[in-house]
Write a structure and sequence with these properties.
- It contains no helices and 11 strands.
- The protein is an all-beta fold.
Length: 122
């Protein structure tokens, strides 16, 4: 059974930083693309970024380019989302997702975590 467990969310002031983690189990981590999505209250879920199986390529939403960085640790079966220069509009529940295919911003990932709340105060 595949499980994705996010952590690292919290309350931070605008301009601050957070690092989210997503630990994957029940799958061969090196064979899965990992993605990050977010959903703000009253809004649809949106793509944040994704990283390929081998970690050699990443893709980001325009709204986070230059501020957010995705990386993965194969020894720990963990994908990270490093978030810098946070803005109030980054406030959302952040979800990690996994799929054997490269889906990039498309939301049809096969596996999803439960999410972690990020709140950025102004």
């Amino acid at each position: 059974q595949v499980q994705l467990v996010e952590s690292g969310g919290g309350l931070v002031q605008a301009g601050g930083s957070l690092r989210l983690s997503c630990v994957a189990s029940g799958l061969t981590f090196s064979r899965y693309t990992m993605g990050w999505f977010r959903q703000a209250p009253g809004k649809e879920r949106e793509f944040v970024g994704a990283i390929t199986w081998g970690g050699g390529s990443t893709d980001y939403a325009d709204s986070v380019k230059g501020r957010f960085t995705i990386s993965r640790d194969y020894d720990k079966n963990t994908v990270y989302l490093e978030m810098n220069s946070l803005k109030p509009e980054d406030t959302a529940v952040y979800y990690c997702a996994a799929d054997k295919s490269w889906l990039g911003p498309r939301g049809e990932y096969a596996h999803w975590g439960q999410g972690t709340q990020v709140t950025v105060s102004s």
